C-alpha cells in the first residue's frame, strides 16, 4: 500500500514532511472540489433522466392510445400494445438505473465528501493548532533564562508535553491522511463500479427484454413486407380501377348503376332519384319543393328512400309483388317512371334514360324474384302490422276492404280453399279476371301468362276494391274448373299435384287457360245443372227467379220447346247463382252477421234486400224500364229469336252467350262463354250494335260490368246510336256503374246521335250523384291536363268521392237508387 | 289555361259554397271566376266546379271553388267534398230570412264533414237590393258570425260588391288564420269589412231591423 505521508517523517516534522502535507492538503481540497462537481453533475443527470422517463412515459401512453383506437385492426393493435408494454418495461429499467445512479454516485460520494473529508479537515485543524503550540513551546523554551531554574523546568515540561502531543496528533493526522488517501480511491471506485453495474444491469435487462421481443418483431417485419407488397398491388389495382371508371364515366357521363340481384346486403339497386311530392295538391308549405332528390333503394322486396344515412328509410312500396312499373312519357319532365301499387303510385325521375331503364329493369326483376322466393313468407308478412307506408297515402276514412277479410270472404266460395290449378291448401292469391284462388307458385305462372289471360292479385297484401271482391265471390274455383277442366277426366289428363315441378304446373296452366285444351267446346252448358236448387231456398229467391223468367227473359214471350228449355236452364242458372251456401258466403262477405242471422231466421222478403240480391232486384226493375222505355216489342222478339236459333242448335255461340249472360248477370255463364272463345267486345249487329258491356249495364249489375272490364272489354265501345256504356248507365241512372266506368277510364265527352254527352243527359235527368261524378271526373281530367299532374290518379278529394261511391255501389246500392225510381217509370 | 305557370309555385285551395237554394251561390262563383252574372241561372245539380288563379303575397294560388246544390234532392249523396276544403262561404239571401235561418243547419252539416280547421265566412248576398226588401240586418248576422267564429261580409254578385274581397279573404284567411291567433282574425276582418262597406247603410239597416221586430 502506497503511503502518501511517511510516519517517520512526521515524527521528525521535517520540511519534507511539511511539504508532503501541503501536497496532500492541496490534493484533498482539489478532490473535494472535483467530487462536489461530480455530485452536482450526477444530480443534474438524474433529474434529466427522470424528466426523460416522464416524457417517455407520456410518449408510451400515446402509443397505448393509438393501440386502443386501432382496436379494429388486430395487427396494429396487438403490435402496438406489445411494443408499448416493452417500452414501459424499458422505462422501468431506466428508472431503476437512475435510482442506482443516485445511490451509487450521489449518495455515496456525498457521504464521502461530507464525512470523510470533514473528518480530514478537523484533523488538519487540530494538527495545525498543535503544531503552532509546539512552535510556541519551542520558542518559549528557547527564551527561558538559565538562571530561572523554575521557568527552565516548566518550559522544558511544556515543551516535552507539547512535543508529545504534537507527535501524537501529527501521527493521527498522518494516519488520517493516509487512510483518506486509500479510502478515496476505494470510495470512488466503489461508487463508479456500482454505477457501471447499474448500467450493466440496465442494458442486460433491456437486452433480455428485446431478445424476447425479437421473434415477434421479426414476424411483424415479415408481415410488413407482405403489407407493403399488397399495398403496392392494391394501389396499382386502384389506379387501374380509377382510370377505367374515369374512362367509363367520361364515356357515359353517368353514375354507375347496376342491378345486383344476388346482393348479400339485400340491396338490389340503389341510387338517387327525384321523387315527386305525393301531396302535390295540398302542398301548403310554400318553401317545400315538389320534387326532391332522394337516395332510393330496392331491398327486401321493398322500394325505400332516405334523406340522410341516419334516417330510417321511408318505405314507398311495401311489397313489390303488388306493383307494376311503367314509363311515363306524357309529362313535362324527362326520364320519369311510375311505380304503381294498389293504394298509390309514386312518380320517380331518373337523371337519364339509361338510369331510368336500369331502375325499371331492377324493379321488374325484383318483382319477379320476390315471386319466386318469397313464397309462403307472404303469410307472415300480412300478419304483421303494416309499416309506415310512405306516409303518403291519403287518410282513408273507410279503408278499403283489405287483407284477412278479403281472404275470408273469397275462401267461402266453393273450391276456393284449394289452389285452382294444383290443389294446394290455403291459396293466398287470386286471378281477378278468372275469379279463382291460387297458390303462390301458380300465381307466378299466371302472371307470366300476361294480363290478357290472368290478372293476379294477393288476397292478403292487396287492397281490394269492393266490386272486385264481389266479382271474386260470384265465381270461384269450382265454377271455373267446371269450365276450364271439363274434359280433363275424359282426356285422361292428370292435374298437377302439390309438390310437382314448376315446369309441370306451368305446362298444365298454359294448356288450361291459354290453349283452353280441357274446355268442352261442344258440350251443352253444364252450368245449368251445376247445383240443384236446394229445398230450403228462401221464397224470395224463387220469387225473384220466377219474376225474372216471366218478365225479363225474352224467350218466354215466344214459347217453344227449345226456348222452354232455355228458360228452365236460365232459371236454374239464376237459382244456382243464389244457392244457399253461396248466399251465405255472399253475406258473410259483407260481414253483416246479424243481418245474415235475421235472413236465416226471418225468411221475410224485406231482409233479403241486402247486398247482392239487392242488386239483382234493382236490376230487374231497371231491365223492365229498359224494355219498356227503350225497346219496342218487335225488337224484343227479334232479339229473342237470335238466342232462340242458337239455343235450338243445342248450343249457343259464345258471343251471344256472353251477350245474353251479361244482361241476366249470370257470371258463370259469362265465364263459360269467354272460355269458349267469346269475343268480349262482341257486337250484336241485330241489336243496334250493342255489346256485352252495354247489356251488362242494362242488366243493372255492377259486378257483371267489372267482370267484363277485367276481361278486356272496351269501356268506350258504342252502339249504333253512339252510346257507350257510360251513356247507358247515365240514362238508366246506374250511379255505381257510372262511377266504375269513370274509374276505368271511360270517355265522357263522347256524344250520342242526339249530340248529348253523359253529363248533359245526367243534368237533364237531374241526377245529382251522376252529375257530381261526371263533373268531378271532368275537373280531374282538366287538372291533369293543365298541370301535368302525372303519377296520380287524381287529387285526394276526387279519390275520396269516388271511393265513397264505389263503396255505396257495392255495399249500399239502395242509397244510390234514389234517382232511379222516380225517373224510370214502371210498367 | 291563361294563368298557367310553373306548377311548383302554385298552391291549390279548395273552397266550397253552401247555402239554401236561390241565394246566389252559382252567381257568386261565376262573378268571381268568369266575371259573369246570369239573371236566370238554373238550379245547380250535384256540384259545379270553377277555378281561378290569383296572386297573393307574390304566390300563385289556384282557387278551386266547389259550388254545391242548395236543394236537398239535387245534392250529391257524398259529403267527401267537404274534406279537402280549406274554406267555405256559407251564403244566405239578405232579403230572405228563411235562408238566414238555415245557416245553423248548414253550419252543422259543414262541421260534421269538414276539416276542423276550415275557415268559414258567412256571406249575406244580394246586398244590391233595396233596403226595403232587406230581411236580415247586417248587425244580426255579424253578431251571429262573431259568436260562431265566422268571418262575415255582405256581397252582391250582381254589382260585384265584395265578391273579390270575400273570396280573397277566405283564400288568405287560411294562412293568416292558422299562423296568428285564430280568434281575432275573423273579428278584425269582419269589422273592417263592415266599416268599409256598410258605413252608409248601417243607419238604414238599424231602421229595418226595428221595423222587422
From TrEMBL, chain A:
<feature type="repeat" description="ANK">
    <location>
        <begin position="721"/>
        <end position="753"/>
    </location>
</feature>
<keyword id="KW-0040">ANK repeat</keyword>
<dbReference type="InterPro" id="IPR002110">
    <property type="entry name" value="Ankyrin_rpt"/>
</dbReference>
<keyword id="KW-0862">Zinc</keyword>
<dbReference type="GO" id="GO:0008270">
    <property type="term" value="F:zinc ion binding"/>
</dbReference>
<keyword id="KW-0472">Membrane</keyword>
<keyword id="KW-0967">Endosome</keyword>
<keyword id="KW-1003">Cell membrane</keyword>
<dbReference type="GO" id="GO:0005096">
    <property type="term" value="F:GTPase activator activity"/>
</dbReference>
<dbReference type="InterPro" id="IPR027267">
    <property type="entry name" value="AH/BAR_dom_sf"/>
</dbReference>
<dbReference type="InterPro" id="IPR036770">
    <property type="entry name" value="Ankyrin_rpt-contain_sf"/>
</dbReference>
<dbReference type="GO" id="GO:0010008">
    <property type="term" value="C:endosome membrane"/>
</dbReference>
<feature type="compositionally biased region" description="Basic and acidic residues">
    <location>
        <begin position="630"/>
        <end position="640"/>
    </location>
</feature>
<dbReference type="Pfam" id="PF16746">
    <property type="entry name" value="BAR_3"/>
</dbReference>
<dbReference type="Pfam" id="PF00169">
    <property type="entry name" value="PH"/>
</dbReference>
<dbReference type="InterPro" id="IPR001164">
    <property type="entry name" value="ArfGAP_dom"/>
</dbReference>
<keyword id="KW-0677">Repeat</keyword>
<keyword id="KW-0343">GTPase activation</keyword>
<feature type="domain" description="PH">
    <location>
        <begin position="266"/>
        <end position="368"/>
    </location>
</feature>
<feature type="region of interest" description="Disordered">
    <location>
        <begin position="374"/>
        <end position="399"/>
    </location>
</feature>
<dbReference type="InterPro" id="IPR037278">
    <property type="entry name" value="ARFGAP/RecO"/>
</dbReference>
<feature type="domain" description="Arf-GAP">
    <location>
        <begin position="404"/>
        <end position="526"/>
    </location>
</feature>
TrEMBL record, chain B:
<protein>
    <recommendedName>
        <fullName>Ras-related protein Rab-25</fullName>
    </recommendedName>
</protein>
<dbReference type="GO" id="GO:0005525">
    <property type="term" value="F:GTP binding"/>
</dbReference>
<dbReference type="InterPro" id="IPR005225">
    <property type="entry name" value="Small_GTP-bd"/>
</dbReference>
<keyword id="KW-0547">Nucleotide-binding</keyword>
<dbReference type="Pfam" id="PF00071">
    <property type="entry name" value="Ras"/>
</dbReference>
<dbReference type="InterPro" id="IPR001806">
    <property type="entry name" value="Small_GTPase"/>
</dbReference>
<dbReference type="GO" id="GO:0031260">
    <property type="term" value="C:pseudopodium membrane"/>
</dbReference>
<comment type="function">
    <text>The small GTPases Rab are key regulators of intracellular membrane trafficking, from the formation of transport vesicles to their fusion with membranes. Rabs cycle between an inactive GDP-bound form and an active GTP-bound form that is able to recruit to membranes different set of downstream effectors directly responsible for vesicle formation, movement, tethering and fusion. RAB25 regulates epithelial cell differentiation, proliferation and survival, thereby playing key roles in tumorigenesis.</text>
</comment>
<dbReference type="InterPro" id="IPR027417">
    <property type="entry name" value="P-loop_NTPase"/>
</dbReference>
<keyword id="KW-0342">GTP-binding</keyword>
<keyword id="KW-0472">Membrane</keyword>
<dbReference type="GO" id="GO:0012505">
    <property type="term" value="C:endomembrane system"/>
</dbReference>
<comment type="similarity">
    <text>Belongs to the small GTPase superfamily. Rab family.</text>
</comment>
<comment type="subunit">
    <text>Interacts (GTP-bound form) with RAB11FIP1, RAB11FIP2, RAB11FIP3 and RAB11FIP4. Interacts (via the hypervariable C-terminal region) with ITGB1 (via the cytoplasmic region); the interaction is GTP-dependent. Interacts with ITGAV. Associates with the integrin alpha-V/beta-1 heterodimer. Interacts with VPS33B.</text>
</comment>
<dbReference type="GO" id="GO:0003924">
    <property type="term" value="F:GTPase activity"/>
</dbReference>
<keyword id="KW-0636">Prenylation</keyword>
<keyword id="KW-0449">Lipoprotein</keyword>
<dbReference type="InterPro" id="IPR050209">
    <property type="entry name" value="Rab_GTPases_membrane_traffic"/>
</dbReference>
Amino acid at each position: 500500500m502506497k503511503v502518501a505521508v511517511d510516519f517517520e517523517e512526521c515524527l521528525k516534522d521535517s520540511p519534507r514532511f511539511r511539504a508532503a502535507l501541503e501536497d496532500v492538503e492541496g490534493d484533498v481540497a482539489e478532490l473535494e472540489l472535483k467530487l462536489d462537481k461530480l455530485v452536482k453533475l450526477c444530480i443534474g443527470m438524474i433529474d434529466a433522466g427522470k424528466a426523460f422517463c416522464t416524457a417517455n412515459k407520456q410518449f408510451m401512453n400515446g402509443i397505448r392510445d393509438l393501440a386502443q383506437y386501432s382496436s379494429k385492426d388486430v395487427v396494429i393493435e396487438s403490435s402496438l400494445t406489445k411494443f408499448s408494454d416493452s417500452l414501459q418495461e424499458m422505462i422501468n429499467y431506466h428508472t431503476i438505473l437512475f435510482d442506482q445512479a443516485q445511490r451509487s454516485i450521489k449518495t455515496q460520494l456525498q457521504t464521502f465528501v461530507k464525512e470523510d473529508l470533514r473528518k480530514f479537515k478537523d484533523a488538519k485543524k487540530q494538527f495545525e493548532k498543535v503544531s503552532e503550540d509546539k512552535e510556541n513551546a519551542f520558542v518559549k523554551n528557547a527564551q527561558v533564562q538559565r538562571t530561572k531554574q523554575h521557568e527552565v523546568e516548566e518550559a522544558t515540561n511544556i515543551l516535552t508535553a507539547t512535543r508529545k502531543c504534537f507527535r501524537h496528533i501529527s501521527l493521527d493526522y498522518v494516519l488520517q491522511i493516509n487512510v483518506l488517501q486509500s479510502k478515496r480511491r476505494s470510495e470512488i471506485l466503489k461508487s463508479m463500479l456500482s454505477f457501471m453495474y447499474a448500467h450493466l444491469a440496465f442494458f442486460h435487462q433491456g437486452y433480455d427484454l428485446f431478445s424476447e421481443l425479437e421473434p415477434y418483431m421479426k414476424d411483424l417485419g415479415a408481415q410488413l413486407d407482405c403489407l407493403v407488397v399488397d399495398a403496392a398491388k392494391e394501389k396499382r389495382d386502384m389506379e387501374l380501377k380509377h382510370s377505367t371508371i374515369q374512362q367509363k364515366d367520361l364515356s357515359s357521363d353517368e353514375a354507375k348503376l347496376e342491378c345486383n340481384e344476388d346482393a348479400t346486403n339485400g340491396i338490389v339497386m340503389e341510387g338517387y332519384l327525384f321523387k315527386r311530392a305525393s301531396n302535390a295538391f295540398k302542398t301548403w308549405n310554400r318553401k317545400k319543393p315538389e320534387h326532391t332528390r332522394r337516395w332510393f333503394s330496392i331491398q327486401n322486396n321493398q322500394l325505400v328512400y332516405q334523406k340522410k344515412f341516419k334516417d330510417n328509410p321511408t318505405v314507398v312500396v311495401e311489397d313489390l309483388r303488388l306493383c307494376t312499373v311503367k314509363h311515363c312519357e306524357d309529362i313535362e319532365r324527362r326520364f320519369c317512371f311510375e311505380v304503381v301499387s294498389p293504394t298509390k303510385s309514386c312518380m320517380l325521375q331518373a337523371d337519364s334514360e339509361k338510369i331510368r331503364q336500369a331502375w325499371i329493369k331492377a324493379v321488374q326483376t325484383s318483382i319477379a324474384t320476390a315471386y319466386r322466393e318469397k313464397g309462403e313468407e307472404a303469410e307472415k308478412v300480412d300478419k304483421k302490422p303494416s309499416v309506415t307506408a310512405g306516409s303518403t297515402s291519403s287518410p282513408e276514412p273507410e279503408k278499403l276492404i283489405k287483407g284477412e277479410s278479403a281472404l275470408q270472404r273469397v275462401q267461402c266460395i266453393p273450391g276456393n280453399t284449394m289452389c285452382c290449378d294444383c290443389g294446394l291448401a290455403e291459396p293466398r292469391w287470386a286471378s281477378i279476371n278468372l275469379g279463382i284462388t291460387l297458390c303462390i307458385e301458380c300465381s307466378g305462372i299466371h302472371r307470366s301468362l300476361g294480363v290478357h289471360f290472368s290478372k293476379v292479385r294477393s288476397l292478403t297484401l292487396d287492397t281490394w276494391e269492393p266490386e272486385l271482391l264481389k266479382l271474386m265471390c260470384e265465381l270461384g274455383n269450382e265454377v271455373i274448373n267446371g269450365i276450364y277442366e271439363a274434359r280433363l277426366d275424359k282426356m285422361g289428363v292428370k292435374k298437377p299435384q302439390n309438390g310437382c315441378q314448376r315446369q309441370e304446373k306451368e305446362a298444365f296452366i298454359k294448356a288450361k287457360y291459354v290453349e283452353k285444351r280441357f274446355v268442352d267446346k261442344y258440350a251443352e252448358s253444364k252450368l245449368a245443372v251445376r247445383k240443384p236448387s236446394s229445398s230450403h231456398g228462401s221464397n224470395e229467391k224463387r220469387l225473384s227467379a220466377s219474376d225474372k223468367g216471366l218478365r225479363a227473359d225474352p224467350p218466354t214471350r215466344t214459347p217453344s220447346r227449345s226456348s222452354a228449355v232455355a228458360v228452365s236452364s236460365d232459371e236454374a242458372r239464376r237459382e244456382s247463382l243464389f244457392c244457399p251456401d253461396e248466399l251465405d258466403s255472399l253475406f258473410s262477405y259483407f260481414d253483416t252477421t246479424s243481418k245474415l242471422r235475421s235472413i236465416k231466421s226471418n225468411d221475410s222478403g224485406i231482409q233479403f234486400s241486402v247486398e247482392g240480391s239487392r242488386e239483382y232486384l234493382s236490376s230487374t226493375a231497371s231491365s223492365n224500364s229498359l224494355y219498356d222505355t227503350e225497346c219496342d216489342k218487335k225488337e224484343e222478339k227479334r232479339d229473342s229469336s237470335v238466342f232462340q236459333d242458337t239455343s235450338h242448335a243445342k248450343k249457343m255461340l259464345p258471343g251471344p252467350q256472353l251477350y245474353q249472360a251479361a244482361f241476366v248477370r249470370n257470371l258463370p255463364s259469362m265465364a263459360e262463354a269467354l272460355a269458349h272463345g267469346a269475343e268480349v267486345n262482341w257486337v250484336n249487329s241485330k241489336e243496334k250494335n250493342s255489346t256485352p258491356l252495354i247489356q251488362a249495364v242494362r242488366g243493372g249489375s255492377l259486378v257483371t260490368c267489372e267482370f267484363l272490364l277485367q276481361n278486356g272489354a272496351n269501356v268506350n265501345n258504342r252502339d249504333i246510336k253512339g252510346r257507350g256504356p257510360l251513356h247507358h248507365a247515365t240514362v238508366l241512372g246506374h250511379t255505381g256503374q257510372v262511377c266504375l266506368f269513370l274509374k276505368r277510364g271511360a270517355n265522357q265527352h263522347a256524344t250520342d246521335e242526339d249530340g248529348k254527352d253523359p253529363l248533359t243527359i245526367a243534368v237533364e235527368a237531374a241526377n245529382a250523384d251522376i252529375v257530381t261524378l261526371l263533373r268531378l271526373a271532368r275537373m280531374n281530367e282538366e287538372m291533369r291536363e293543365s298541370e301535368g299532374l302525372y303519377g296520380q290518379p287524381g287529387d285526394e278529394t276526387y279519390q275520396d268521392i269516388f271511393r265513397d261511391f264505389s263503396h255505396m255501389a257495392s255495399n249500399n246500392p239502395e242509397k244510390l237508387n234514389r234517382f232511379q225510381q222516380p225517373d224510370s217509370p214502371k210498367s | 289555361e291563361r294563368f298557367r305557370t310553373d306548377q311548383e309555385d302554385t298552391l291549390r285551395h279548395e273552397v266550397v259554397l253552401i247555402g239554401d237554394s236561390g241565394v246566389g251561390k252559382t252567381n257568386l262563383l261565376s262573378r268571381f271566376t268568369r266575371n259573369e252574372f246570369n239573371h236566370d241561372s238554373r238550379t245547380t245539380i250535384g256540384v259545379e266546379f270553377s277555378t281561378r288563379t290569383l296572386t297573393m303575397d307574390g304566390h300563385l294560388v289556384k282557387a278551386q271553388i266547389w259550388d254545391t246544390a242548395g236543394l236537398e234532392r239535387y245534392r250529391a249523396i257524398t259529403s267527401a267534398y267537404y274534406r279537402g276544403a280549406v274554406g267555405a262561404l256559407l251564403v244566405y239571401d239578405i232579403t230572405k230570412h228563411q235562408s238566414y235561418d238555415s245557416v245553423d243547419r248548414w253550419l252543422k252539416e259543414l262541421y260534421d264533414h269538414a276539416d276542423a280547421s276550415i275557415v268559414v265566412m258567412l256571406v249575406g248576398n244580394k246586398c244590391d237590393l233595396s233596403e226595403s226588401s232587406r230581411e236580415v240586418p247586417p248587425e244580426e248576422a255579424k253578431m251571429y258570425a262573431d259568436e260562431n267564429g265566422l268571418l262575415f261580409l255582405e256581397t252582391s254578385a250582381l254589382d260585384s260588391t265584395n265578391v273579390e274581397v270575400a273570396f280573397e279573404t277566405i283564400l288568405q284567411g287560411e294562412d293568416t288564420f292558422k299562423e296568428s291567433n285564430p280568434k281575432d282574425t275573423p273579428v278584425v276582418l269582419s269589422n273592417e269589412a263592415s266599416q268599409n262597406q256598410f258605413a252608409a247603410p248601417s243607419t238604414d239597416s238599424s231602421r229595418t231591423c226595428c221595423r222587422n221586430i
